[in-house]
Amino acid sequence: MTADKSENTQQVSSIGAGPLAGVRVLELAHIMAGPVCGLMLADMGADVIKVEKANGGDDTRRFLPPQINGESAAFMMMNRNKRGIAIDLKHKSGREVLLRLVKDADILIENYRHDTMQKLGLDYAQLKAINPALVYCEISGFGRTGPYRERGGFDLIAQGMSGLMSITGPDHASATADGEVTPEPVKVGPPVSDITAGILAAMGASAAYASRLKSGHGNRVDTSLFEAAISLTYWQSAIALASDETPQPLGSAHPLNAPYQAIKTRDGYINIGAANQRNWEKLLEVIGATELSNDVRFADNASRMKHRLELINLLETYFRARSTDEWVTCLNDAGFPAGPVLTIPEMHQDPQVLSRKMVTSVEHPTAGHVDTLGTPVKFHETPTQVKRAAPLLGQHSREVLTECNYSEQEITQLLASGAVLASDHAGSA
Question: In the CATH scheme, what is the homologous superfamily, with its name and number, of domain 7-231+355-421?
Answer without folding.
Answer: Crotonobetainyl-coa:carnitine coa-transferase; domain 1 (3.40.50.10540)
